[in-house]
Every structure is written in structure tokens, then in C-alpha cells.
Task: inverse folding
DNA sequence: TATTGTTATACTCTATAACTATA
DNA sequence: TATAGTTATAGAGTATAACAATA
């Protein structure tokens, strides 16, 4: 056996790729509050799909308190805003500022390059295939998850 | 747009799948010290591929101090043993006990079922394809990584 | 002097619990 | 009474630094 046995383990491979991705993304998103997570929140804010902080937190795999801190930072940086939801004034509607949209546009390209660097060992069709397979797994709607639903 | 935009993000999908995997694996490996990580260390120990704790730590994406604690727990549970490497007595050679091998055998099947549950939305050929693609990304040998090398 | 592994310590990150305001 | 969000606090997890043994 010329290859370590852990390397045939799905969990190991998943973890290794995930770590590599996070490292690349953090390098590219160093200037953005919250790094990769902040980027995902900002994306959701720009798309106006943040029904509530809790829904967004769940979708992103975060605790609601972590989401509070994250948005605090993004708001302090002038990238997003929250205002009470008129329909339910306990909840906050998250929206991106002009600066936030600009920041997203600017970083999106760089992040894409970082992704491609992580996917470098794969040919272009394989990259798309992997993206599709992962998305298919990630967006499965089972259990009690209302987190895939749009606003 | 009927689907949240974050869901077309590779990082989001990778994170979501990874979180789902870890949750499943932790449930199945609840009895094993260190959970999924302990499992990976145990696998390496059984295969006798743990040249040094540091090499193994790097391969598994852990700090060397974390590796110490992890092995402490596995050793206390009687699953692995460490003894000085005759070739370099600073290093420890990690090996599995009979109980460790039994434990790995017993949990491997359960873990495989947990994996398949995570991969459930995919057809069998797609699952294999995903495993291959991830492994291809994870085992790329670049930079200064001697961590893919066998012992 | 450099390196492996250990230990102690400090730090970061996350989750728990209590609170405010809405419903 | 229950829920969204916030805040403070405690806890888990991680990394840093100092050390002992060996190279």
C-alpha cells in the first residue's frame, strides 16, 4: 500500500478540501469583516434573501449569537444595514449598502480565482461536476429545515 | 430567482456538506475518544502509517499539541500505544492494540452507513465520482507537504 | 543548535443563559 | 406565552510558549 489509508476516508478528504478552501478564501477575503462567513452574509444581504438573522444563521451553520457579532462587524464597516421588519418588528431586515455591493463585486472575482486554485487538480468539466454534486448534497431539504426556502 | 444565491457558492456548499458529515460521523462515533478525528488517528495507527505524531497531525489538519491530547485519550481507552521510535528516539511510533483494531472494524461499517446517508441524494455512481474528485483534490501534493508520503 | 513530543498557559471561538422588544 | 435579537458570561477548543529528551 503506497497511499495512507486515511486518504480513502471520505471524512478525511472532505476535511482536507474544506481546510484548503478556507485557507485560500481567508487569504483573499482578509479585508472583509468575518472573512468567508462575512462574504456569505454579504452575499445574502445583497440578494435581499435574509428573511431573518436566525434563518440566515441556520443556513450558514452558525449560532444566532455569532450572526449578531458578524453583522455588527459588517455594519460597522458600512457594508450592510439592518432595520426592523415592518411585518414583524422583532426581526431585522438585512440589506447591503452601496459600499457593500461594491465590496461584493470586487471580492467575488478574487474569490472565484481562489476557488479555481483549490480546484486546480481537476479539469474544467470535473470542477463543474464537483460543484453540482456538492450543491446537490448541500441543498437537500430534509428534516425541519426551512433554511433553503427563499424569503 | 427561487434559490438563495449563497447556495451557488462553492464555499457554502462545501461547508454545509462538511457540517452534515461531521454531525453524522459524530453520532456514529460517539463512543470513540476524539470522534471523527480519533477515528482517523486510529485508522492510521492500525495501518501503521504514523511515522511521527507531527506528520500525522499535519496530515489530519491538527496542531501537534491537539494530537498529543487526542492520542492520550485513545491510549487511555486502550486502543493505541506509543513507543519510542528506535530510529529516532525523540519520535513515537503509534500502533493499534488488538482492542483498537476490533474497535476500528466495528465502527468502520457504521461509519460507512453514515457516509452513505450523507450521500443519499446521489446515485451510486455519483457517490463514487464525488469520492474520487474529493480525494483527487485532497491528495494533491504541492507546497512543502511531506504529509502524503507513506512511512 | 534543531527537532519531537509534552505540559502549562493564554487566547479565540462558540454556545448558554438572561434580558428587551415585540408578537 | 412564545419568538427575534442582543448582551454577558461561561465553556470548549485551539494555539503559543517553555521545557525535556534526543539528534
Result:
Amino acid at each position: 500500500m503506497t497511499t495512507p489509508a486515511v486518504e480513502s476516508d471520505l471524512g478525511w478528504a472532505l476535511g482536507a478540501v474544506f481546510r484548503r478552501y478556507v485557507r485560500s478564501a481567508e487569504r483573499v477575503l482578509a479585508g472583509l469583516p468575518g472573512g468567508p462567513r462575512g462574504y456569505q452574509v454579504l452575499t445574502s444581504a445583497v440578494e435581499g434573501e435574509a428573511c431573518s438573522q436566525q434563518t440566515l444563521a441556520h443556513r450558514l451553520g452558525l449560532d444566532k449569537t455569532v450572526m449578531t457579532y458578524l453583522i455588527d462587524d459588517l455594519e460597522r464597516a458600512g457594508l450592510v444595514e439592518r432595520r426592523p421588519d415592518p411585518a414583524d418588528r422583532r426581526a431585522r431586515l438585512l440589506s447591503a449598502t452601496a459600499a457593500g455591493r461594491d465590496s461584493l463585486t470586487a471580492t467575488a472575482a478574487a474569490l472565484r480565482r481562489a476557488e479555481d486554485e483549490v480546484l486546480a487538480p481537476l479539469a474544467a468539466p470535473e470542477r463543474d461536476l464537483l460543484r453540482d454534486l456538492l450543491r446537490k448534497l448541500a441543498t437537500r431539504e430534509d428534516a425541519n429545515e426551512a433554511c433553503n426556502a427563499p424569503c
Notes: The radius of gyration of chain A is 17 Å. The beta strands of chain A are 80-85, 88-96. Residues 98-118 of chain A form the longest helix (21 residues).
